[in-house]
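User: For a reading group we're discussing how well predicted structures match intuition. Take P1 family peptidase. Before you show the prediction, I'll give you the sequence so everyone sees exactly what went in.
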Amino acid sequence: MDRARRAQDAGLACGSLQPGRFNSITDIPGVRVGHRTLNDGDIRTGVTAIIPHGGNLYREKPVAAVHVLNGFGKSAGLMQIEELGTLETPILLTNTLSVGTCCTALVRHAISSNPDIGRETSTVNPVVLECNDGYLNDIQALVVAEDDARAALDIASSDVAVGSVGAGCGMSTFGFKGGIGTASRRLEIDGQSFHLGVLVLSNFGRSGDLRLPDGRIISPVTPSSEPDRTEKGSIIIVAATDIPLSDRQLRRVLRRSGVGLARLGSFWGHGSGDIAIGFTTGNILAHDGNADLVEIRILSEQRIDLLFQAVADSTQEAVLDALVAANSMTGRTGHHRPSLLDTLATLSGDVSQ
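Assistant: Thanks. Here is the predicted 3D structure of P1 family peptidase, as structure tokens, for the group to look at:
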């Protein structure tokens, strides 16, 4: 990761809790992230993969949950997570019209390690979430292939690139260039050190509504060519923790990710698909378990406010992380998004950045 292009280095840290070592979702042990970026001609898109742990996810399922802030979206796999409270594939992020392709890639990925899927045992629930990158990307070209999804899975590591990478290549945020951002918070609970981390695919917010942590409201210097200021973007929030939680507790935590979006100036408009998904590696349920009763640990509700604070701060900062890391971009038919850092430099009179 380029430390010069992170939100905290730009003076845009959020909240009082301390970040983890990487200030990333990969501060949770075992979590890895990979990107496949497609940037050529009118193409500005890609795939981002989040892998919760290094084992067989289908056999060892992390407890998971989903919270839909506004459901203008085409994601796949959320219904079973809502019902069963577990995750059994990596999470893929991509553009709206490539969800099906990425689902197929995840099914093949699961079958390669579990040939009994759909035959001797149950089928698999691929989880793919999306944002519409059609302003900068020729989304109708349908260029994302299964090989791109596999590549993102294969190169996943603890080193998370941010900005206009992977699924974030063609995304926009508050009229600026958006993309992938991440942040984490280190939490001390019962004498142990834990982490909560967030990764966002940021593609939401009306131009002119962005509010920085110091209270400044920032607009792009050059007005957008879009005909109106209707909120019609999306954001996908992926939260991970190693704190033992139930799926009910995890859903409560995910709801507070909306606090971070509100601080930034978002009101989750009618046309915005705002979805939070999360998992904990602190509770893993076995696919092949034969016991009638299983034991899990959960956090005392008296301490859950700490996680509420952490997810709100991490979500807010992860969006700013995406904005800081993303360079300006011109894409399909000359559509343009300026970078936040260039705009801040212009507003301050500092043209040296």
